[in-house]
Amino acid sequence: MITYLTTSKEISFIFNFNKK
Predict the structure, then answer these.
(1) Dihedral over alpha carbons 8, 6, 16, 18 (to 10 degrees)
(2) Cα separation of 16 and 10, whole Å?
(3) d(CA 14, CA 10)
(4) Which domain of life is it from (predicted)?
(5) Burial class of residue 12 in the structure, from the number of CB atoms within 10 Å of its CB (0-12 exposed, 13-18 middle, 19+ buried)
(6) What's the pLDDT tens digit per position in 1-20?
(7) What is the dihedral of CA 7, 10, 8, 16, to 10 degrees?
């Protein structure tokens, strides 16, 4: 489950960066 959380955080970060 830790991996899933980390992946989610990474995706969120990338999405936010791309949104800029």
Answers:
(1) -90
(2) 10
(3) 6
(4) Eukaryota
(5) exposed
(6) 567 777 888 888 888 888 77
(7) -160
